[in-house]
Amino acid sequence: MLSEDDARRLVLAEIENSRGDVDCELGILRVQAVSFGWVVYWSAVSPLSNGQPTRLGGNGPFLVDRENERLITATRPIHQQIADYERRLRREAHAQNAAAKRAARGEGA
């Protein structure tokens, strides 16, 4: 199970791996706790050399699942992405329960 610090390290590694030609310091701005883990918001954390704030496009937040270490890039409004992921987790739990019941009864998959 991941801690919040582990989640931060995962996100920092991911943004570093995907930085491409971005020539500014990237970092975590805020972490929001949710039912399954965290939403980690990130962006440029240093201004341009002329003092203007650095603006990035496409830097959506990450959802980090504490149980299975999934790192998901939010591609829709964050409230919708969270609700969709929570539904996914419920479906997965239901499928695992159903499979365990079938196995206990000696039925095939």
Q: What distinguishing features does this structure have?
A:
single chain; 109 residues; alpha+beta; 4-stranded antiparallel sheet; 2 helices; 38% helix; elongated
Quick summary of this structure?
38% of the residues lie in helices and 22% in strands. It has 109 residues and is of the alpha+beta class.
> Describe the biggest sheet?
4 strands, antiparallel
Strand arrangement in the largest pleated sheet: 1-2-3-4
Helical coverage, percent range: 25-40%
- The domain tally reads 1
Count up the helices: 2
The topology string of helices and strands comes to HEEEEH
Low-confidence stretches: none
**Oligomeric state:** single chain
Number of strands: 4
Provide a descriptive summary of the structure in words:
The protein is 38% helix and 22% strand. The protein has 2 helices and 4 strands, in the order H-E-E-E-E-H. The protein has a 4-stranded antiparallel sheet, with helices on one face.
Any chance you could write out the topology, listing elements then pairs?
Elements: H1 4-17, E1 26-34, E2 37-44, E3 62-65, E4 71-73, H2 78-104
Antiparallel strand pairs: 1-2, 2-3, 3-4
